[in-house]
Amino acid sequence: MSAPFTLRKIGVPPNSANLTEARRRVFDFFRAACRSLPTVMDIYNLQDVVAPSQLRFAISAQIRNNAHITDPKVIDLLLFKGMEELTDIVDHAKQRHHIIGQYVVGEGLVQNTGSKDQGKSDFLKNFYTSNYF
Amino acid sequence: MALRAAVLRHLRVPVQKLTVSGSNQSQIGFLASIRSFSSHDDHLSKQDVVDRVLDVVKSFPKVDPAKCHTNHLSFSRFLRLVDQFVVTTNPQVTPDVHFQKDLGLDSLDTVEIVMAIEEEFKLEIPDKEADKIDSCSLAIEYVFNHPMSS
């Protein structure tokens, strides 16, 4: 598997001095993720399922979820987790249904969007996301 | 061998000087400009670059005149929202539009557009240059001046 873009471990050292540096790291991570998209689509055979622009949108949506955070250390930790996830995906440690369920079809697992669950309680809808609601 | 040489010595073949006439010269000049096997002559025309960059910007999901901003927006829901407004020709997206000021996008969207442009033209833009690309006109200029864009 020879990818034209090799995933350089941007490797987040645990200290961003200030918010601007953390911001720069976020953009670097986003660029690395976008550049590894052709490899991902190739590995998991997503050519007919989704377009790279949709995956880019999904990645940016996830980054935007945490856009309100101002503490550089928290941002570093989130970047570390994001980097870990990206490495797992590029190393083929995940499988196709993981990618489709998590990044292609809406938020969360495929189960939530089934029509038979629409009228059920909020408890079941939030069951997979967290314990506290 | 010797016989051949002897015979050839006695044969005179009239040799014509091939002068390149005027029409031939222009023809050869014209043919020389189409080097079909060379990859160095396929630079994009400016209009081509402008059209493709505008297509990339217009197909960005957040660019539409109605400007619906909601959080936790999934891609399919957003496309449905855009379809409701039937945006085929985006009146706001001109070749000199600024991503953040005119289209109301934020910095993450700017990076995403630059990545979409990278994908479209098969380039790899270094980070320092990518940070400077803030508007359509800068993007068009960069792509046009890049020797590897295709």
TrEMBL record, chain A:
One of its GO terms (biological process) is response to oxidative stress. Signal peptide: none annotated. InterPro entries: Complex1_LYR_NDUFA6_LYRM6, NADH_Ub_cplx-1_asu_su-6. This is NADH dehydrogenase [ubiquinone] 1 alpha subcomplex subunit 6. The lineage of its organism: Eukaryota, Viridiplantae, Streptophyta, Embryophyta, Tracheophyta. GO terms for cellular component: respiratory chain complex I. It comes from the Eukaryota.
UniProtKB/TrEMBL annotation, chain B:
The keyword Transit peptide applies. It comes from the Eukaryota. GO terms for cellular component: mitochondrion. Residues 47-147 form the Carrier domain. It is found in: Mitochondrion. GO terms for molecular function: acyl binding; acyl carrier activity. Pathway: Lipid metabolism; fatty acid biosynthesis. Keywords: Electron transport, Fatty acid biosynthesis, Fatty acid metabolism, Lipid biosynthesis, Lipid metabolism, Mitochondrion, Phosphopantetheine, Phosphoprotein, Respiratory chain, Transit peptide, Transport. InterPro entries: ACP, ACP-like_sf, PP-bd_ACP, Ppantetheine_attach_site. It holds the Pfam family PP-binding. The keyword Lyase does not apply. NCBIfam families: acyl_carrier (TIGR00517). Carrier of the growing fatty acid chain in fatty acid biosynthesis. May be involved in the synthesis of short and medium chain fatty acids. Accessory and non-catalytic subunit of the mitochondrial membrane respiratory chain NADH dehydrogenase (Complex I), which functions in the transfer of electrons from NADH to the respiratory chain. Complex I is composed of at least 49 different subunits. Belongs to the acyl carrier protein (ACP) family. This is Acyl carrier protein.
